[in-house]
Amino acid sequence: MKKSTFDSVMGTRKTLRWRIVVVLLTVALLPLALAGIGSWIVFGRLLEDKSLDQLRTIVENHARAIEFYLLERENLLSIAAETASTQHLGSQAGLSRLLADLNRLTQDGFVDLGLIDADGRHASYVGPYDLMGPNYRDAEWFGEVMASGVYISDVFLGKRQVPHCIVAVRFEEAGHMWILRGTINSRSFDDLVQATTIGGGAEAYIVNREGLYQTTPAQGRLLDEAPRVERLVFRGVRDRRVQHGISTLIQVTTWLNNDRWLLVVQQPLAAVQAPVNRAITAGALVVAVAVVLLIVTTFFATWHLTSRIEKANAEREEMSRAFVRSAKLASIGELATGLAHEINNPLAIISAEETNLSDLLAGEASEPDWRRQALESIARCKAQVQRCGSITGKMLQFGRRQEPRPEPTDIAPRLAEILELMKRRAAVRNVALRSDIEPGLPRALVDPVELEQVLVNLINNAVDAMPAGGEAVTAARRVERGIELSVRDSGTGIPADILDRIFEPFFTTKPAGKGTGLGLSVCYGIVTSWGGSIHAESEPGKGTRILMVLPAEAGTRRKPDTNGTEQSWNPKKEF
């Protein structure tokens, strides 16, 4: 095989391998990619919703804890007011012991305590501020507690001008109204509000209905107005996304303290999505490992399969070459009889001329022109010897084994030589061989030796298909795809149910011992190796037509001139 042909075959094999790899990976990875993207979207949203549900649950539980904290301090003051007398509470020592007891129970939950009469004046006070002088009768919290009996105030400055929150309970003793008031420890309350179990940069704080901080925020101070907080009253827990600079926050809110305080817990969206991203990353790693395994498996499988295909192709090519050799041997056997007749004719002429020469030499004195006659006989012998050499040369050429080399070939003279070679065998079968060649055909790109083999096989089949005699016509004409070459007989024809099988190896319609079943399969392999096509048309009782389309040489064909001879013609030169 030539180097260029070898390189072409190797390039084709590499291209085939990569095409198979691309197709297999596309078929495998495309559904996997779609499933991965779909899973990322669907399960990502599910996991994010799950994280938000967990966050809402935490905030709801945290709100209950804060409510319990406030209720505990309210109940402690109520119990103290109901169990202790105003005489005891009105004394500095008694109120100090009560404050100490309450702080022991609440872990320093109160800053101070005060007993206030119905006129708004302190009867006693224990704490770090000097509050015995001021009157609270006009304070908002005083009116609220006198009206409702129990009151937890917003954070306010008050007489002490320090932000604080109070818990106050009203009680009656001996017909007089009293108020026991305690100031909640802001630091412990802030720690409680901010002590969520969310983590991940979460922040918690409380605002009142006016939007003012009731606990110390991460940025800002008590009683500052809180930004980005909706103060609409609602039931349950609500979440929304809030833009904070370049980051997005998830803000979860719920109302508490009789809908007077709004608990706000906010966390960066990235922290909420962190579990989702971890799950997606883990899934992506699993998919990546699967993809790597898939790619490696695909490459190994493809290389294995293509190697098997190459081996099968090599075996098929070797088998095809064996078919060709077998078909050549079969064709040579069939031609042997015809060749024997062809060679016997010139040998008979040579023998007759040899006798004539002997007679001339024997009668040399009586034949004055014997020299001329002897030279003519020798010339005829030479011509017949050349004829024998031509016949045997064609036989050797036909039987020679060589690689196919398609080249521009004139069909008409080749066909004439083959018909001349086979006319005696056909005549024995009472078959007339005729050709119908369209003038001006371009040259076909075929192997001349293989073309002779194909035509001999087809003409032999046509002759064998007409046991009672008939006509075999070999025709050639120009078509759009190249040159149409056909061999038609008027024989018995081929049934439609086996017509598609006639090009199969070892399939034959001839009687046992009359054919090998290789001729048409070899013809099929040869014609397709040129880039042509071959098929059969047949009708039982009317004959068979084997039709081939051969590639034609581009740009040049034969055009008849005005004298009836042929000359080289390039259509491009006329336009």
Question: Can you describe what's shown?
Answer:
The strands form four sheets. The chain has a five-stranded antiparallel sheet with strand order 2-1-5-4-3, with helices on both faces. A five-stranded mixed sheet has the order 11-13-14-16-15, covered by helices on one side. The chain has a four-stranded antiparallel sheet with strand order 6-9-8-7. Strand 1 (110-117) and strand 2 form a beta hairpin. It is built from eleven helices and 18 strands. The chain starts with a helix and ends in a 6-residue tail after the last strand. Helices cover 51% and strands 22% of the residues. By secondary structure, the chain is α+β, with helices and mostly antiparallel strands.
The order of strands across the largest sheet is 2-1-5-4-3
Strand content: 15-25%
The CATH topology of one domain is given as Heat Shock Protein 90
CATH homologous group name of one domain:
Histidine kinase-like ATPase, C-terminal domain
For the record, the CATH architecture of one domain stands as: 2-Layer Sandwich
Give the averaged pLDDT, no decimals: 80
Q: Please report the number of helical segments.
A: 11
Span between termini:
40 Å
Strand count: 18
Percent range of helical residues: 40-55%
Radius of gyration: 57 Å
Unreliable segments of 5+ consecutive residues: 556-575
The CATH class of one domain is identified as Alpha Beta
String of helices and strands: HHHEEHEEEHEEEEHHEHEEHEEHHEEEE
Largest sheet: 5 strands, antiparallel
